[in-house]
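User: Reviewer 2 asked us to show a designed sequence for the structure in our supplementary figure. I'm pasting the structure tokens here. Could you produce the per-position amino acids so we can include them in the response letter?
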């Protein structure tokens, strides 16, 4: 008996003195039984902690490698509440490198996938607490169907909650089909305190194209104060504050190109639900400017849009066609000059004190009163100076776009020299008529304009009055038939 006890003591002493080698063999063997090739170097092993190096996967190109890993843990005895086992309390990873792939909407960690599936497939015990995880100098090499990405990060995760993240993506060039990004880079900073999370994101792209929208020289700055999502209840309810600024040398979308564009937004509101069923309500201020807008038969210079008090609500899910939204705001739209086909204008201002809009998926409707002033409007030989209008506008977009507007139009001075300039040999009546057409004031107190895919119609609901500068007055009576009708296709 004494001999057996002596042998056990010698064996225990040998295991303790060689605990690092024993631990290495134990861990490598455990991973090998999971079908995972690994190499472990143990620097220190005690009853309450482990320090070492770990490499998993192909030694020449490992899926995971950490230069230094520190684990603090408590060993549970068989009669303890948690039972026999090891409960980690702190894990520190110094310069870890992860090689992963994101394709067809799925993330793969290579040889680590079986281990990840095993651990994520087990629900945590209700009374268990996840360890504090500290990542220093982390690096992820992500292979995607668009091209490779490299991500750098420092992070702190406590009990499964992201408390701190400082991440950076060096410039990358990506392309797949019509989706492309060149010189795409970004920096993100996340800080959590209690149930609130502060997020700051800065991203840049030399060039990008996605879903029919593209641009060059784009930069986005976004900061937010958000509720921390509850991963157990799958809810993200709480106050939302967002500030965003987008600048671009060029933006392209819906057949229009904007150059030297700037857009800003400030939003304060509240969100409820989860990604599959959410609702968002709040108020915002939004503004956008562009040095030039260009499209087919259209060019506008120094355009500016201001939504000073935007009341917004939206709800939906993961599919874009499920999204519903409503918005209301005063609006001010200005342009220094513009050209639409043969029509040219200067110093145009469109103002609405109560514009309302709403939609679902790609369909939407915009309606409300608006006033329009244009310093000069010209088309062909016809010129209007001091043009203005007060209109109730209704725009509907579903399979086609329909616009209807009713209200008043006027101009201080109209020149429509359809008969040419007065000539010396003109009879007096003809000369006076030419002078009248060369300069007259116009007042149309009630008109209706309708535009759709069939064409454009203008109807006088009350008589139109023209007052020539050389005296007199001319009235054009209202009629059911349009005074102007332009059909699509000529």
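Assistant: Here is a per-position design you can include in the supplement:
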């Amino acid at each position: 008996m004494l001999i057996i006890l002596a042998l056990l003591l010698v064996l225990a002493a040998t295991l303790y003195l060689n605990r690092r080698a024993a631990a290495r063999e134990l861990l490598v063997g455990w991973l090998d039984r999971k079908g995972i090739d690994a190499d472990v170097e143990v620097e220190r092993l005690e009853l309450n902690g482990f320090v070492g190096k770990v490499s998993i996967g192909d030694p020449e190109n490992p899926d995971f490698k950490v230069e230094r890993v520190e684990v603090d843990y408590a060993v549970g005895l068989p009669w303890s509440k948690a039972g026999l086992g090891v409960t980690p309390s702190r894990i520190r990873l110094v310069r870890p490198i992860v090689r992963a792939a994101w394709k067809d909407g799925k993330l793969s960690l290579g040889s680590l996938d079986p281990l990840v599936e095993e651990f994520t497939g087990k629900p945590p015990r209700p009374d268990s607490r996840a360890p504090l995880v500290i990542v220093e100098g982390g690096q992820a090499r992500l292979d995607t169907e668009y091209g490779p990405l490299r991500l750098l990060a420092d992070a702190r995760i406590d009990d499964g909650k992201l408390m701190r993240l400082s991440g950076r993506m060096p410039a990358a060039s990506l392309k797949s089909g019509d989706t492309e990004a060149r010189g795409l880079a970004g920096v993100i900073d996340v800080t959590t305190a209690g149930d609130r999370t502060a997020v700051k994101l800065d991203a840049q792209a030399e060039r990008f194209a996605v879903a029919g929208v593209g641009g060059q020289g784009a930069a986005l700055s976004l900061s937010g104060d958000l509720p921390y999502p509850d991963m157990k209840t799958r809810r993200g309810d709480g106050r939302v504050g967002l500030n965003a600024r987008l600048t671009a040398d060029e933006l392209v979308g819906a057949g229009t190109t904007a150059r030297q564009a700037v857009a800003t937004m400030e939003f304060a509101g509240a969100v409820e639900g989860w990604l599959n069923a959410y609702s968002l309500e709040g108020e915002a201020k939004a503004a956008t400017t562009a040095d030039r807008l260009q499209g087919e038969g259209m060019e506008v210079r120094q355009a500016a849009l201001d939504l000073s008090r935007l009341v917004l609500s939206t709800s939906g899910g993961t599919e874009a066609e499920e999204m519903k939204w409503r918005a209301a705001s005063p609006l001010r739209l200005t342009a220094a000059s513009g050209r639409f086909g043969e029509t040219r204008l200067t110093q145009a201002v469109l103002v609405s004190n109560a514009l309302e809009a709403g939609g679902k998926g790609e369909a939407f409707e915009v309606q409300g009163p608006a006033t329009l002033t244009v310093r000069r409007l010209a088309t062909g030989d016809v010129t209007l100076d001091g043009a203005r209008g007060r209109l109730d506008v209704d725009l509907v977009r579903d399979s086609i776009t329909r616009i209807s507007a009713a209200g008043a139009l006027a101009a201080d001075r109209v020149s429509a020299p359809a008969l040419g300039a007065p000539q010396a040999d003109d009879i007096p009546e003809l000369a006076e008529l030419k002078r009248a057409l060369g300069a007259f004031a116009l007042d149309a107190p009630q008109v209706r304009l309708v535009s759709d895919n069939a064409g454009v119609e203008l109807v006088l609901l009350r008589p139109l009055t023209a007052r020539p500068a050389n005296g007199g007055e001319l009235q054009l009576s209202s009629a059911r038939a349009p005074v102007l009708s332009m059909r699509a296709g000529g």
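For the response letter, you might also mention the following. The first strand starts at residue 38 and ends at 46. The first helix runs from residue 2 to 17.
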